[in-house]
Write a structure and sequence with these properties.
- InterPro entries: Cupin_1, RmlC-like_jellyroll, RmlC_Cupin_sf, UCP019307_cupin, YjiB-like.
- The chain is mainly β.
- It contains two helices and nine strands; from the N terminus they run E-E-H-E-E-E-E-E-E-E-H.
- It has a single domain, classed as Sandwich (Jelly Rolls).
- The strands form two sheets. Strands 1-2-7-4-9-3 form a six-stranded antiparallel β-sheet, with helices on one face.
- It is globular and about 45 Å long.
- The chain starts with 16 loop residues before the first strand and ends in a 20-residue tail after the last helix.
- The model has no long low-confidence stretch (mean pLDDT about 90).
Amino acid sequence: MGPVKLTLKITPLSVLRTSTHHIPAHGHIPNTSLAPHPLLIYHSAFAREPLPNPSTIEGHLRRIGAVHPQWRHTMYNQSHFHSTSHELLVVFRGAARLLFGGDGNPGAVTAEARMGDAMLVPAGVAHRLLEDLQEGSAFEMIGSYPVGKNWDMCHGDGRAAEDVQGIRERIRGQGWFDKDPIYGDEGPALRI
């Protein structure tokens, strides 16, 4: 008996459901105020049957070539954002309630993310885990960043270590994608 071939089912673009969110700045968190691109959520981009395998998802993302997978983990429960890179998050296990935009922000977005969902988070958009929704199946994601980019960790809480002007300049300097990270030459990231 040979090795088991893992298959990955991607939702066809013709039936893919997405949602976009422009999130206003809040305190020292810029969110989408510095860039023209919204938070983009791909609902069920990867089919839930068969269960998405993280290695197979990572292989797919590498083949597309827009992002490079760098970690597998849950989301931090403290709001944070990145000034040096956009971020693609793909859920491969469990479900959770997430907050985008920062605590106390009246324009923040709360979203439920489930296995197979993906979120394209522009640089500057704060995000955090609010609640793991499935007991017995810890919420886990793949974190990927544009090829050649490294991520930093910003909190937007006015810490002396955070250079607010430098953060803003780095976010403004981030280019957008030439390929959709999941769908390649077509896809929602190229239309927003």
